[in-house]
Each structure stands twice: as C-alpha cells, then as structure tokens.
Amino acid sequence: MKRTEKSLIAACGMNCSLCLGYQREKNHCNGCRNEKNIKYKTKGSANCVIKNCKLLKDTKSGFCYECSKYPCTRLKQLDKRYRTKYGMSMLENQEYIKENGIKEFIKKEDIKWKCNTCNGLICVHRGYCLNCKNKENE
Fold first, then answer.
1. Is residue 25 part of a domain?
2. Residue 110 and residue 127: Cα distance in Å, rounded?
3. Alpha-carbon distances of 110 from 66, 88, 90, 106, rounded to whole Å
4. 113 vs 33, 37, 87, 130, 138, CA distance in Å?
5. Which backbone phi and psi does 81 adopt, to 5 degrees?
6. Can you give the pLDDT at residue 37?
C-alpha cells in the first residue's frame, strides 16, 4: 500500500496524497510542502493564501492550529467547501493532528482513504481510486 508521508500534510490540514493534483500523472503536484526545488508548481498551490500566510512561520508545528488567528476566514471557507463537496474537514484534521500528533493522523488517513481493491489511496476530489479506477469504495 502506498503510504502518506509527513511532508504531504499541508499547513491547512489537507492530505496532499489524496489530492487529484498529486495523484495525476500529467502536471503532477508534489504537495504544498514539497515544491521548493521543482520546475512545475500548481497554480492553486502557488496562489494559496494559507500556504503563503506569513503567520505560519511563527508556528512551531507549521500547522494552522497554532496560529493566533486560528481558524481564520480562509481556513473556514476551505473547510466548508471540502466538507460539502468531498466529505473532508480541514478543521477536524487540524484538531486531530493537534490532539494526536502527525504520525497518528497519517495512520488514520491511510486506513480511511485506502482502496479496497489495490490498497492505493482514494482521490478525495474524485471519490475513487485513480490507480485501479475502482469506484466500489464510494
């Protein structure tokens, strides 16, 4: 099974290994925390208000939950969109990481989003595994 890496958990709480941009082959995104030395950077990531937030540098963990403005308007908007469209909550992810640590969060995510057919990871934006195209997990 392909596992989520710590560097694939964005400051907002998004698990980038579940993202369509990360899972696709063409114009592959390496995740918000892994774009420093690569040629192709996704437009969304480059323009992300949360990723580029100046207050993040003041946090020890690099996650929004430590910010003095948590949860900010942008994070709340992102959370609402992802809850509605994709069944994922950035705020719940933040709270889980805060209470249980990043290692436990990754373990939980790898189980929650595991494809029952090929053990790959379900794409949060499509709702099925892009590796084997299995839609039975929906």
1. yes
2. 15
3. 24, 14, 16, 6
4. 21, 28, 11, 12, 10
5. -65, -45
6. 52
- Predicted model pTM: 0.85
Sequence-separated (6 or more) residues with CB below 8 Å from residue 20: 123, 124, 125, 126, 130
Determine the pLDDT at residue 44. 61
Task: Write out the two tokens for 87.
Answer: 């069944």
What is the per-residue burial (b if ≥16 Cβ within 10 Å, else e) of 64-73?
bbbbeebbbe
Instruction: Give domain status of residue 124, yes or no.
Output: no
Pick from 5-9, 39-43, 64-68, 118-122: least confident = 39-43
Q: Is residue 86 a part of any domain in this protein?
A: yes
Q: Using alpha carbons only, what angle is made at residue 52 by residues 46 and 54, rounded to the nearest 5 degrees?
A: 160
